Amino acid sequence: MIPQIPNERVPEVEVDAIFTDRWSPRAFSDEPLSEEQIATLFEAARWAPSCFNDQPWHFRYAVSSDDRARFSEALVEKNQQWAQHAPMLVFVLARKHFSKSEKPNRHAVFDAGAAWMSLALQARRLGLYAHGMAGFSVNKAAEVLNVSLDEYEIMAAVAVGRRDDPSKLSDDQRANEKPNGRKPSAEVAGEGSF
Ligand SMILES: Cc1cc2nc3c(=O)[nH]c(=O)nc-3n(C[C@H](O)[C@H](O)[C@H](O)COP(=O)(O)O)c2cc1C
Question: Residue 6: is its pLDDT beyond 90?
Answer without folding.
Answer: no
